[in-house]
Amino acid sequence: MAIVKHIKSRNANYSAAINYLLFEHDEKTGKKIVDESGRSILRKEFYMDGLNCDPMSFDKECELTNAHFHKNKKREDIKSHHYIISYDPADVTENGLTGERAQAISLELAKQMFPGYQALVVTHTDGHNESGNIHTHIVINSVRKTAVERQPYMDKPHEEVAGYKHRSTDKFMNTFKKTVMDRCLQEGLHQIDLLAPAERKITQKEYMAQKHGQQTIDEINRKIIEDGLKPTSTVFLTQKEYLRQAIDECAVTSSNFDEFQSKLLELFQISVIEHRGRYSYLHPDRQKRISERALGTRYGKEHLEQTFLRKDPLAILYVRSHLCLVVNLQTNVKAMQSPAYAHRVKLSNLQQMANTIIYVQEHGFDTQSDLKNTLLASKQELKEMQTQFAQHRSNLRTLNDQIRYTGQYYANKEIYSQFSNAKYKGKYRKEHAKEIQKYEEARDWLRSFYQDGKMTSLKTLTLQKEKLQQQIASEEEAISSLKEKLKDLDTADQNVDAILQMQIPEPVKSKTKDLER
């Protein structure tokens, strides 16, 4: 299956991306590998293209774009985004995937998802730790070089305009993953549902922490063994992995939450509580809890409650899981190629049909029209909420400007007053250039904003900001909740369509025609 990863970088040295993609690097240290003469060694096999730039001058062209639009000047600015599409190793032997073919597929995906951006598209065939899986790196400058048509996944104002920065939002990532899934299925490559929540959610940050931690413990153990002693631990566990293993062990022997909670605390010193319908865990070496979302769906309330219920053979009849789409076996390439896979999909489809029927009954949908009307109404409600949310965010930015320029105005007002009364204004301006410039900048902005000349006090502005921030936080939570509801509604709607299509009877053959035969 192809998977998609995203990494954002604040490194202003765009040459570092070119060096990493073209030359061999030590995976443990991250340093470039050189030959006896100290020269960099090219990777054994790679394919490279540039999008809206020459790949070999990607770094210079990005710097020119940034300078042209006066962007990425601050250290904390995100300078580039790095997306990695990793293909299933089995695609090489089973589906004839080559580095050249993967590069062509990934380049088309990059053109579709990153129009107007300067990008490096480089495919490697060695895989991580020489695993052999083909993967493509797409590195884009965070600033859009040329304007493009607005796309459905763009939910930020002016995202399509040249000079605006890329935002890797949830909406964008979901669209990107869906596009990758569709393309892999079209190409006959192995693919899983990237939009379904991961059972074990391991981020790039956790993966790297585990990797470096294992290297450290291996080095320590090597010295212990050399001294003739036996290491007490050979495997490094991140705090999240420690939680996962402990939860797995306690869940299978617990019949309810109270028992599960007691065992975690007694055996592993892990505290678990339920908050707002979700579980959160406290590692013994932490002060802040880790939510079930950070660990994966396998460690969430819904899945674990199902595990507890399964101890009772009667209760299993009432177990529900996340709604997932019913798979169409007539269009699924892998199902057509593998009878065993098709059989598993059929079983999964039966479960999802049952879950869909339970969902429809629980929410009181008497007809298919009721379901579709609720779905359409929810989509419209979400659109209106997002429009209002975007407006409030825009108002907050304006309010922040008011506060900043008002504070800047009053902070430098006294110096500017002294400058106005100074005998030698040129000398005074030279000595206080920074303060005078800030005052004039603030004064001009405030004059253009307050057309009637009446300024709002800092105290009032601060109160307005607090109120607006609370409103934005409330709207953000409401939008998140509505999105989850919409996802279930949309899945149920598609599944109902699929179920009804499966139940359409074949035309009954005429008895007269049968007799004639």
TrEMBL record:
Pfam families: Relaxase (PF03432)
Residue ranges that the Swiss-Prot or TrEMBL entry lists as coiled coil: 368-402, 458-492
Keyword terms of this UniProt record: Coiled coil
Domain MobA/VirD2-like nuclease: 44-146
InterPro entries the record matches: Endonuclease_MobA/VirD2
Protein name: Relaxase/mobilization nuclease
Organism lineage string: Bacteria, Bacillati, Bacillota, Clostridia, Lachnospirales
